[in-house]
Amino acid sequence: MRFATLDGWLDWQSGLHPAAIDLGLERVAGVWRQLGGQLACPVVTVAGTNGKGSSVAMLEAIWRAAGYRTASFTSPHLHRYNERIQLHGEPVEDGVIIEAFERIDRARGAISLTYFEFGTLAALDIFSRAEVDVVILETGLGGRLDAVNIIDADVALITAIGIDHVDWLGHDRGQIALEKAGILRRGRAAVCSDPRPPASLLDRAAELGAPLSIYQRDFSAEIAPAGWQWRMGDRLRNSLPMPALRGDYQIQNAAGVLAVIESMEARLPVSQNAIRDGLAGVALAGRFEVIPGRPTIILDVAHNAQAAGVLRDTLANYHCKGRVLGVFSALRDKQLDEILGVMDASIDRWYPAGLDDPRGLTGGAIAGLLEAHVEGDRAPAREHIAEALNDARQDAGENDCIIVFGSFLSVAEARQTLEN
Could you tell me if residue 259 is inside a domain? Predict the structure, then answer.
């Protein structure tokens, strides 16, 4: 065995390939063939700019409530790498991942793999050996050339489409949507929970003969006196509980999820009670996650302009009684001027911080961006989220709200700070 610990494997993988991101399927597909693996159960692949993680969590919660054995692969993680690979709602153990890494290392021969490709293959290898009824795969970047796309999904779900990763996916929604549409398969069902998908997505679905159901065209959601209702054709589901994930936008995600459930009904029938239980019990860290206490602390992984707009609207509906203090940091490849512009009016005082990551900006760089794009009050820059969060907690009154956002790394460090 090359390494005895998971950290050893992960450190080695980080420097194995010449580039951290190397989009393409040839190398990873070749290793998958060498492994001889196959997924013998239905597969759902989820792509999109925002809403992927929430949609995966809801799909998994509903199918588990219906008694099915689930497997899911997501990224990135907040605290432990194991969060990415889950069986029946629980992260797999280190030893299971290490064994998969060892099999992949033997199978790859001279083929170089990225960190993400190793993780994708590990998840697929683990799922192929487990007794599961359904596999849910979340793309990491785009769709067409993402490692997850070596698997032909039975149903493709595309969530909200916005502007992100422009260096890899394109500079407008049409180009980005076409990359997301890469997960579609000829003649197989597809669902889009974005009510206004670009024409490029519709054209690609038509070209493939993939029946595409679109939110507010082919299925809908409507708030009702007893929760909300969902309709698709002559199929109506009434008296549904609001998803346990906060934010009105989660209804949009949930509507897409129910369209996927409907498309899989023949293979994975689900009762109304299972849908209700799944929606009411779903949990996902870092999506407008409210930490109880005084002052209120809210954690959100919003890291692009579209997600920032959703965060702004959700924060407005939360009706904080006092000031809103914003602890913010981000990666350098994001459209930070747009994010700050969206959030400026919602934040009374900013707390800039750096991220301890090669892609992260320093606290001073974040402070400079705030000075250029934000009119609100600013605290001194800190090099770590923990320091900025502690400053905000000291300044906050009991009726104030502290929001930590800008990156998965920002939320991860904040959660660790709060747990210590």
Answer: yes
Of 243, 259, 281, which residue is a domain's last? 281
Q: Are 193 and 51 in contact, with CB atoms under 8 Å apart?
A: yes
Q: Check whether residue 277 and residue 375 sit in a common domain.
A: no
**Residues of the domain holding 220:** 6-281
149, 42: one domain: yes
Instruction: Give yes or no: residues 240 and 367 share one domain.
Output: no
Q: What is the pTM of this model?
A: 0.93
Q: Would you say residue 400 has pLDDT above 60?
A: yes
Q: Tell me: do 149 and 213 sit in the same domain.
A: yes
Whether residue 185 sits in one domain with residue 163: yes
Look at the chain and report how many structural domains it folds into: 2
**45: number of Cβ within 10 Å:** 27
Residues 373 and 227 in one domain: no
Which carries the bigger pLDDT value, residue 16 or residue 301? 301
237/262 Cα distance (integer angstroms) = 11
Please give the average per-residue pLDDT across 140-150, as a whole number.
90
Q: Is residue 1 in some structural domain? A: no
Q: For the chain, how many residues are written?
A: 420
Q: How far apart are the first and last CA of the chain?
A: 35
Q: Are residues 256 and 207 in the same domain?
A: yes
How far, rounded to the nearest angstrom, does the alpha carbon of residue 392 sit from its chain's CA centroid?
27
For position 68, what pLDDT does the model report? 98
